[in-house]
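Incident log, support desk, overnight shift.

02:14 A customer reports that sequence design results differ from what the structure should imply. Their input is reproduced verbatim below. On-call engineer (initials T.W.) acknowledged and began investigating.
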């Protein structure tokens, strides 16, 4: 008899992102069915607290009827409008204008993408175009941080610096370089934040000198390195990198795909240090995951160079069929209303409470490091607190952690090295944070006793 169960069909046909494919076939899929607020339900009747907001994207939480209504209304009126050939739609125009108003001061032009990877990829293309237009065609090299994640496009994956995105994919390419991650827990200059910053500034200078000062186009960084294990750099790190980029004559790109839209408290993480990047990438919280959308925000001085380079009427050869999709844009406008209508304040308040509650785990025998900025946090487990030794990979700690978490009705990100990552919806309450902490505690007990 044919097995037409979801599990069998999934095993036979669906290729999942970032899983060990054979291991997934053996394990089978977990089918999620519905969501409400900070909770998800699966098709086995389990209700789980979502401590990871989907994939750090459902910032507003699940089940907002106003967002569903905005999408349905836009779908009925005009489900698609191209942005090509001078066409446009009201939601895309209004969303671009709102983002320009909210974003750091010079960022006033917006190119919409479908997510974060194509936002980063678009930046790479636009940076190349910019330097060529400026008459500096040698400026082609990019520098990024080790442990950084900038998506998995064929170009962006080489700026990403996580081994599984490189292995057998033939990246990084010769124009893609990395300097050490500013991780105070593991940096040779750490844990002193000022020493980590000084070493990072020096590393950027050294890399530019090595590549050739006239050859480096840009430096890209996440304000907090999400997929690398929620690495929170010391305060002042990002500003120091921005200042160094200005001194070295290279563009400064901030990848806020995870950190934007209240994830760390304010609307953008750039606000913590008053950053004013040349480019910023966003996605995820832009639509709270209700529809696919990302964006590149660019500073006016960048836009002007790019626009003037084609002043003879030749179109700029960069486009996506779904750039500025009206349904996604309508969703974006509606979630912005939710963020501005109290969720940012909630994130600042409850984020501080979350950070305080995480300290509960400081003396736990397995906990090496606790890192957090608002509602973005990690607990790094180690086998020896003194030497900071990680658990050997044969222990399969990540799958044990996520299984134990699931049994305790909690979803979080279990990183391969045994770090637990948290990014709950920013509408979470203090009572739900208490529940999350209790469930982490129960999960760590399972691991300690194993
Ligand atoms: C900082 C950062 N940049 C880019 C991306 C890629 O975004 P997407 O998965 O939407 O392509 C991600 C995804 O997690 C990210 O965290």
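02:41 Re-run completed on a clean worker. Output:
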């Amino acid at each position: 008899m044919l097995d037409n169960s979801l599990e069998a069909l999934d095993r036979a046909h669906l290729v999942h992102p970032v899983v060990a494919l054979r291991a997934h076939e053996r394990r089978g899929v977990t089918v999620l069915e519905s969501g409400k607020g900070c909770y998800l339900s699966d098709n086995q009747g389990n209700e789980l607290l979502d401590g990871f907001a989907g994939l750090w994207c459902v910032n507003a939480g699940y089940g907002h009827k106003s967002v569903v209504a905005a999408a349905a209304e836009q779908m009925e009126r005009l489900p698609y409008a191209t942005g090509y050939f001078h066409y446009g739609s009201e939601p895309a125009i209004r969303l671009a204008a709102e983002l320009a108003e909210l974003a750091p001061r010079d960022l006033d032009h917006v190119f919409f993408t479908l997510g974060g990877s194509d936002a980063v990829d678009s930046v790479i293309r636009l940076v190349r175009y910019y330097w060529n237009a400026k008459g500096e065609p040698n400026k082609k090299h990019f520098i990024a941080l080790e442990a950084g994640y900038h998506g998995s496009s064929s170009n962006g994956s080489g700026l990403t610096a996580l081994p599984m995105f490189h292995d057998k994919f033939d990246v990084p390419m010769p124009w893609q370089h990395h300097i050490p991650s500013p991780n105070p827990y593991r940096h040779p200059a750490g844990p002193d934040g000022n020493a980590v910053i000084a070493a990072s500034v020096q590393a950027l200078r050294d890399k530019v000198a090595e590549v050739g000062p006239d050859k480096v186009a840009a430096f890209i960084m996440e304000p907090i390195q999400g997929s690398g294990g929620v690495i929170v750099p010391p305060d002042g790190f990002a500003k120091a990198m921005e200042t160094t980029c200005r001194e070295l004559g290279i563009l400064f790109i901030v990848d806020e795909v995870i950190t934007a839209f209240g994830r760390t408290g304010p609307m953008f993480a750039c606000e913590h240090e008053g950053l004013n990047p040349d480019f910023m990438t966003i996605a995820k919280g832009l639509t709270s995951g209700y529809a696919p959308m990302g964006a590149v925000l660019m500073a006016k001085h960048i836009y002007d160079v790019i626009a003037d380079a084609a002043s003879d009427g030749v179109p700029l050869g960069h486009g996506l069929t779904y750039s500025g999709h009206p349904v996604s844009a309508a969703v974006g406008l509606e979630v912005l209303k939710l963020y501005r209508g109290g969720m940012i304040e909630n994130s600042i308040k409850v984020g501080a409470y979350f950070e305080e509650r995480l300290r509960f785990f400081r003396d736990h025998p397995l906990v090496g490091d606790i890192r957090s900025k608002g509602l973005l946090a990690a607990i790094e487990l180690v086998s020896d607190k003194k030497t900071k030794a990680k658990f050997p990979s044969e222990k399969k700690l990540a799958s044990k952690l996520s299984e134990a978490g699931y049994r305790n009705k909690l979803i979080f990100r279990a990183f391969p090295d045994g770090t637990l990552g948290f990014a709950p919806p920013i509408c979470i309450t203090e009572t739900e944070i208490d529940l999350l902490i209790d469930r982490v505690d129960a999960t760590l007990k399972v691991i300690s006793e194993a």
